[in-house]
Amino acid sequence: MSNSCGFRSHLGGKPVYCARCEAVVWGAKKMLVITRREGEEVVIGDPKNPIGVVRIASVKGERVRIAFEFPREIEIHRREIADQIIDVKAETPSDVIGEIKPVATVSAR
Questions:
Q1: Of 32, 64, 74, 99, which has the fewest beta carbons less than 10 angstroms from its beta carbon?
Q2: Global pTM?
Q3: Is the torsion defined by CA of 8, 19, 49, 74 positive or negative?
């Protein structure tokens, strides 16, 4: 089985960078790798009606500031925060606050 560019070694257990399709591929998942300069943007979704825009706000040494322009209902998290949210949700029991126990039946006199 091959990737959209026809490169067969995309599939497997380790991430592979493919220069032909400029993507990092891990199994069936794919990550586009592109180069952007300060002030340049990436449009997410349909270019006529994008879901959002990612902008390179500034580059200072090894630090890159990224601006995200998305609707408020779309959550955006740094990876370490997303991992914490996942961990907290896994530790937190479901929406059950307590248990309702049946009342002992009282015999009629």
A1: 99
A2: 0.57
A3: positive
